[in-house]
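RECORD TYPE: inverse folding
INPUT: structure tokens
STRUCTURE:
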């Protein structure tokens, strides 16, 4: 065997090994990309149901979700779905005539995290619009949201809370 033939066989072997390693990495990347796409679809489909009660977007929250509303001082953290629906979302939706309609502007996925940037619009009980901009950073496991850090326009929210009384019978 000539040195040129040995070199050619060595190069072919190296290329084959590289391609096999690349395929393995690509399969892993493909699986990860597939999971990220499923997570994005889960979030997109949930937003399509609106944002209001346990049958809306919030249906994908784990029972033990950790939901934090980001604030410069004193962030609010809820440690269960029930607590968040009652104390976090409840005071908002009790002032609206229906669910917040979500216009998802961007979904970014990385591993088990989905970042949703969206605009929410609804009608308040006084007939005026409620509009807010949100960015939610969500961790997803087993097709449930287990952790959220929510960023939103707290001034727009406070204006709604100050302007509109909750519906009668709302807690």
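DESIGNED SEQUENCE:
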């Amino acid at each position: 065997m000539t040195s040129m033939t040995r070199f050619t066989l060595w190069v072919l072997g190296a290329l084959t090994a590289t391609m096999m390693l690349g395929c393995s990495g690509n399969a892993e990347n493909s699986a990860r990309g597939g999971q990220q796409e499923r997570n994005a679809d889960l979030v997109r489909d949930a937003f399509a149901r609106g944002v209001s009660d346990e049958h809306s977007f919030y249906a994908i929250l784990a029972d033990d979700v950790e939901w934090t509303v980001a604030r410069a001082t004193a962030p609010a953290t809820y440690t269960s779905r029930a607590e968040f629906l009652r104390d976090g979302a409840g005071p908002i939706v009790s002032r609206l005539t229906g669910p917040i309609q979500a216009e998802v502007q961007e979904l970014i996925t990385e591993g088990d995290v989905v970042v949703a940037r969206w605009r929410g619009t609804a009608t308040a009980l006084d007939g005026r619009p409620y509009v807010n901009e949100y960015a939610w950073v969500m961790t997803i496991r087993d097709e449930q949201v287990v952790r959220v850090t929510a960023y939103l326009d707290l001034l727009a929210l406070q204006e709604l809370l100050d302007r509109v009384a909750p519906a009668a019978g709302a807690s």
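NOTES: The chain has one domain: 3-163.
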